[in-house]
Amino acid sequence: xxxxxxxxxxxxxxxxxxxxxxxxxxxxxxxxxxxxxxxxxxxxxxxxxxxxxxxxxxxxxxxxxxxxxxxxxxxxxxxxxxxxxxxxxxxxxxxxxxxxxxxxxxxxxxxxxxxxxxxxxxxxxxxxxxxxxxxxxxxxxxxxxxxxxxxxxxxxxxxxxxxxxxxxxxxxxxxxxxxxxxxxxxxxxxxxxxxxxxxxxxxxxxxxxxxxxxxxxxxxxxxxxxxxxxxxxxxxxxxxxxxxxxxxxxxxxxxxxxxxxxxxxxxxxxxxxxxxxxxxxxxxxxxxxxxxxxxxxxxxxxxxxxxxxxxxxxxxxxxxxxxxxxxxxxxxxxxxxxxxxxxxxxxxxxxxxxxxxxxxxxxxxxxxxx
Length: 370
Fold this sequence. Notes:
The protein is mostly beta strands. The protein has 1 helix and 26 strands. The strands form 7 sheets. It has a 5-stranded antiparallel β-sheet, with no helix packed on it. Strand 17 (215-219) and strand 18 (228-232) form a beta hairpin. It is elongated and about 65 Å long.
């Protein structure tokens, strides 16, 4: 396994701007040079490679500072064909309290039928597991896997090859150790791992997502050395609870509109069914509205008052693409609060209701951040 310590070329998170044209040109020229000059580095004999790596961050000089928080992983000989009869393992170790995010920017493994993720157990493949050795996915053939996030500070990648060929170029992945779960909006509180607060004076409108929302990445297509852009949607991590706290002024409420919804589970989304779920509350300490899971969700949800909480909960069993939603604060004098009948998650445009600005409310958070 070759390890390249570098600044990640993948850009994750909802709502982030696409990479600049200058960056795309520079990275394209770098990759063209790599494609022309890279050569297979074999150690001789039985083509044994150094395929067991432990990748971890190390403390910086200042308290709380960490170095080597991102980098790249590539298959042996990348971007040339990888050898047959090979097993490589990389163990990624983030600092305590961080998660590991893995975004593939190139993926082309040998498959006799040239199919993506079909019968991978008997094919050249990449398998991802987390701290508890739960398998998060096995990937084979062509096509980029979805972005992956660990349920804790560790993630393991195992690459196995049985065969090879003149056109199989392997994979390249960017790893990042992060604490914000891939979220780019809201104020993250320090008291709990995944709590984001949206105050109407700072965030009158915007978007929020389930953890690991994916985003825009720079990638190299399977048959080309030309850099391209790709939008990806990540799977949410397992064993994760996230709270999204909305706080308006006394005369305000918040309106939430779902853009998509894919949370593993079956109604009524209880622990007995092993379901992941999303739930809503108009009160800081109670969950008073029905849970939602599966591919059906209320298209529009409005709070009864200035406080509203959305909670996302995943267990250790399965995962899905999660959800994305827009929100905006509006005056109580506008449309009455409603929760529409659950429908397929095709959200309409965000309402253009005028937002009423107000002084910063002196409210005590339900989730203290010290």
